[in-house]
From TrEMBL:
PROSITE patterns: ABC_TRANSPORTER_2. It comes from the Bacteria. It comes from Lactobacillus corticis. PANTHER family: ABC TRANSPORTER ATP-BINDING PROTEIN ALBC-RELATED. Signal peptide: none annotated. Keywords: ATP-binding, Nucleotide-binding, Transport. The keyword Acyltransferase does not apply. This is Multidrug ABC transporter ATP-binding protein.
Length: 219
């Protein structure tokens, strides 16, 4: 069964076409790496898949159900661009607030995920004092903590040092082992995803094409 399916999706901004007739399907448990040049529409595709942006035409299906205008994809976690948090709260306070929306997880689970990404839950630093890398780790924690069926990650390696990048790869691998039905789209230019990705979607002009291999020449 396809978990995510786009059918003839067209995206325009102020009549300027960005992506034309996008068609792809992603199956349960797949990890797909989405690649393409800067400004080609990678973040936009994640917004369309999650329901944050409505295409001008075409259909988006999540678990074979059409994603209707104004609805967010269910059981979907998304980290798009630089995550933004409330600057006057600590990392844990921010995540607790976000977790309270769905009320699916407890504080212990939040803390566990923070530690996995190398954040200290008892750190009293307000988010306004966070470095780029710490902020990124907080965004990643948010994306993983509710253990959603679909996880959409936009440039997850941004601002991370080598060791932290390695940690992200290990966590993604672990999630896929423990919860093999987790389906992920990862937008990244980072080489380290190519070894764990099942497939590659590449933005080429206004089209999204499927690549069997990670083609360095495409960006
Ligand atoms: N809300 C918007 N309004 C107008 N143009 C937008 C909007 N969002 C994105 N764009 C434009 O669409 C193009 C693709 O953006 P984006 O998806 O962020 O690219 P990428 O993530 O591949 O770098 C860019 O030219 C960007 O300026
Ligand atoms: Mg982007």
């Amino acid at each position: 069964m396809s978990v995510i399916k786009l059918e003839n999706v067209n995206i325009k901004f102020k009549r300027r076409p960005l992506l034309h007739n996008v068609n792809f399907a992603i199956n349960t448990g797949e990890l797909v790496q989405l690649i393409g040049p800067n400004g080609s529409g990678k973040s936009t595709i994640l917004r369309v898949v999650s329901g944050l942006l409505e295409p001008v035409s075409g259909k988006v299906y999540i678990n074979d159900q059409e994603l209707l205008a104004g609805k967010y994809a269910e059981n979907t976690a998304v980290m798009i661009n630089t995550p933004s948090f409330i600057p006057t709260l600590t990392g844990l306070e921010n995540l607790k607030l976000l977790a309270s929306i769905k009320d699916k997880i407890d504080v212990g689970q939040i803390e566990t995920w923070m530690k996995k990404f190398g954040l200290n839950p008892t750190d009293k630093t307000k988010v306004r004092g966070y470095s780029v890398g710490m902020n990124q780790k907080l965004g990643l924690t948010q994306a993983f903590m509710e253990e959603d069926q679909i996880i959409l990650l936009d440039e997850p390696m941004n601002g991370l040092d080598k060791q932290s990048k390695q940690k992200v790869i290990e966590i993604v691998k672990q999630v896929r082992e423990v919860r093999p039905n987790t389906t992920m789209i990862v937008v990244s230019h980072d080489d380290s995803f190519k070894d764990i990705a099942d497939r590659f979607l590449v933005i080429d002009g206004e089209s999204v094409v499927e690549n069997q291999t990670y083609d360095e020449a495409t960006f």
